[in-house]
Amino acid sequence: MSNSTYPPLPINLLPDPASPDWMNKADNAWQLTAATLVGLQSVPGLIILYGGAVKKKWAVNSAFMALYAFACVLVCWVGWGYHMSFGDPLIKGVPFWGRADVALNQKYLLEQAFSGKFPNATMVYFQFVFAAITLILIAGALLGRMNFYAWMLFVPLWLTFSYTIGAFSIWSPNGFLFKKGLIDYSGGFVIHLSSGVAGFTAAYWVGPRSNKDRERFPPNNILLMLTGAGLLWMGWTGFNGGDPYVVSVDASLAVLNTHVCTATSLLTWLMLDLIFFRKPSVIGAVQGMITGLVCITPAAGVVQGWAAILMGLCSGSIPWFTMMVVHKKSLLLQKVDDTMAVLHTHAIAGALGGILTGLFAHPRLCFLFTTSYEQYVGLFYGFQMGVVHTGFRQLGIQLLGIFYIVILNVVVTSLLCLLIQFIVPLRMSDEDMEIGDEAAHGEEAYAIWGQGEKLENSRYGYDIESSAKSRHAAGQIEMA
């Protein structure tokens, strides 16, 4: 019997110090690309969406809240946040929080990550963009009145005391909900349910916008808003396609399911607007797009295509109903000023996605994602396979995860807001809210007829008298 020989590897695939034998170059390349796509959802995606979706006087402040959060989270993430989310438990036997440590050491960053065939440096970057977008989504509930100094404190504190706990509990191999078998494919719980509940809770403590802004708050640039929404939608390819940590058939399925569910949700929301309001609303279509993206996120790679369609129908109708009907009848929902309706688009859609995952999760697809076949079984397949107990168990774990994230974020967000208000006011003054960007930052989004020219002796940095004359001149030209 002759010894079999294998042809030598191509020179570009041979391991070397810069490409260890445990690293898959294709997986590493895709993970870096997916992370960048998710980053583009925030910068510039949500910056543009927020900047276009608010009144002109709030465009700079809204966009800057997103930009600040993105930068602040990165510094905190490599400083302590990543290890608190994915490192060793803080206390042995306490499976919901990691021990703080720096993720900047060269030796550590070049070692293989806890999952996937790529280095820790790639994983730290990939997980950072998820943490960053969570804080930016929270900002959506607070636009148009939160004191920027309070926001500067809120971001690192909430990341440290809320996000890291949720991420460790659900995504870390040491987390208790991870071990129980919770399915959160790409952040329906950790990101969207968390941000929706935290944003709504923070909005309660910060207080509402001015009466004038609450009564009428038209977008200052719908086309820019749509541009940001488009970046958000296309960036979701990396959001859900990157979470298997491998270039696999499961990643491909997750990407397709994401876009199918989103398109279905958008069309469902649009049809409901047409039926009940007789007009196809652009803003409504964007809301339906977002709820579809959020709903499919916990299930993207573990459900079949027909289930993605059904999830899109649910995500385009149930959040629509809570926003258009329930909201108007609930005194609590009307009292809390949730500027971008993150409670409906993220908390409700995220919880809905988590529940539907417990119904539609396919055992074979779960095996491709988790390499465990019998532990993850959606309820419908539990009936089909004769393992009803396993299906009910999966649904129960999904409900437990929802309850855990809701309680965590209500309690932690409330405590943080109470703490911050002892340091700086949570809310801008009524006078500053009347002015907007000029009062908060001394800058405007759109400078017209010399309004961008600053004077040192002007309270807000602008020549108010010259601006008034310019507006008068513009009116005279228009009349002529």
Can you describe what's shown?
Residues 29-446 form the Ammonium transporter AmtB-like domain. It is a multi-pass membrane protein. The chain is mostly helical and 480 residues long. Among the domains are: 25-246 and 372-420, Ammonium transporter fold, CATH 1.10.3430.10; 447-480. The chain is 67% helix and 0% strand. Helix 5 (148-170) runs antiparallel to helix 7 (188-206), helix 9 (222-241) packs parallel to helix 11 (282-296) and helix 16 packs antiparallel against helix 17 (388-420). The longest helix is centred in the last third of the chain and has 33 residues, at 388-420. The chain starts with 24 loop residues before the first helix and ends with a helix.
Per-chain topology:
Blueprint: H1 25-53, H2 59-86, H3 106-109, H4 120-139, H5 148-170, H6 176-180, H7 188-206, H8 211-215, H9 222-241, H10 249-277, H11 282-296, H12 305-329, H13 331-335, H14 342-360, H15 363-370, H16 379-385, H17 388-420, H18 430-435, H19 437-441, H20 464-479
Q: Which structural class matches the secondary elements?
A: mainly alpha
User: What is the name of the CATH topology of the domain at 25-246 and 372-420?
Assistant: Ammonium transporter fold
Per DSSP E runs of 2 or more residues, the count of β-strands stands at: 0
User: What is the radius of gyration?
Assistant: 24 Å
% residues in beta strands: under 5%
How is the biggest beta sheet arranged? none
Level-1 CATH class name of the domain at 25-246 and 372-420: Mainly Alpha
The low-confidence parts are 455-480
Number of helices: 20
Mean pLDDT: 91
Q: In CATH, what is the homologous superfamily of the domain at 25-246 and 372-420?
A: Ammonium transporter AmtB like domains
Percent of residues in helices:
55-70%
Q: Globular, elongated, flat, extended or rod-shaped: what is the shape?
A: globular
- The rounded distance between the terminal residues' Cα atoms is 100 Å
